[in-house]
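Table S2 (continued). Query chain:
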Amino acid sequence: MEPIMKASKYSDFPWDMRISGLNRGSTFIVTIWTSENFVGYLEIGEHWDNSNDLELSSIQIYPRYRKTFAFKKLLKEGFKYLTSKGPECDIYSHVQVSNIKMMTIFKRLGFSFSEGRSSHTMQVKGKLSEILDTDLYKLIMN
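Corresponding output:
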């Protein structure tokens, strides 16, 4: 990840937001670039408690590229990776309660919500086989 951070040339990019893959085993990272600039990344790793399950650890998009192609492209590549793991795996993530857009996306993808690590987060959990049947998944993948 270090070469990506340096190549991005963005000193203000939120690298410290949760690049947890630097500290654990198997991690899948997708990065998006324009011809000149780093746009964002998505990180998926083994769940900390069960290596058969996966955790969407982080998705970060440089502010100038939000509301563009970047989010859909990151999700699409992430879903390609997730489907390679088998439809019975569970997918976990944490989301800030104030992040209404992401909470809505998780809900539309069929994730369930429970109390998070702190008062301002929610843990989300979804079964890949159920996510694959949602209209939003089908829209993302087209």
